[in-house]
Task: inverse folding
């Protein structure tokens, strides 16, 4: 089983959206039984809380699941996952600093780096405090990276 973990700041918006989108993309690519996906946050406030209501609304409006339980990123997650995906450059940098080994740091990627048109990659801006369009933008950016992410996963599991 190939395990992917998305990481953002609070695990209430960006990483739960990415988790739900990748979960469906894996199923549509016929990889649902070969890969697992989860998410966590670097600075969570309430472990076990639901995703932000606006994130849930955007996911539901586009036919995605939105069940979620906030969890804090823990260093042992490096051992439990094959790929750890930061939603912005800061997340990527912090994760690399937290990595206990070079091999663990090598598991860290920026979500935007999976978009071949992006060059070095792009950040998914935090929609917290914004309106529903900010959450829609988050979803669009996450979706843009999915073809490249699915291709990278396929290489690893086939």
Result:
């Amino acid at each position: 089983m190939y395990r992917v973990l998305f990481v953002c700041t609070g695990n209430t918006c960006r990483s739960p959206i990415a988790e739900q989108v990748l979960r469906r993309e894996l199923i549509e690519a016929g990889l649902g039984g070969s890969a697992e996906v989860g998410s966590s946050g670097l600075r969570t406030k309430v472990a076990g809380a639901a995703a932000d209501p606006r994130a849930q609304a955007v996911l539901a409006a586009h036919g995605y699941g939105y069940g979620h339980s906030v969890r804090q990123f823990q260093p042992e997650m490096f051992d439990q996952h094959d790929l750890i995906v930061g939603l912005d450059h800061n997340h990527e940098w912090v994760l690399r600093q937290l990595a206990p080994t070079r091999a663990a740091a090598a598991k860290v990627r920026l979500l935007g780096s999976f978009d071949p048109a992006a060059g070095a990659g792009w950040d998914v801006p935090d929609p917290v405090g914004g309106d529903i369009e900010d959450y829609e933008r988050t979803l669009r950016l996450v979706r843009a990276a999915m073809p490249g992410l699915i291709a990278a996963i396929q290489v690893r599991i086939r």
User: Anything to note?
Assistant: The beta strands are 2-8, 35-41, 83-86, 108-110. The CA atoms of residues 3 and 112 lie 19 Å apart. The chain has six helices and four strands.
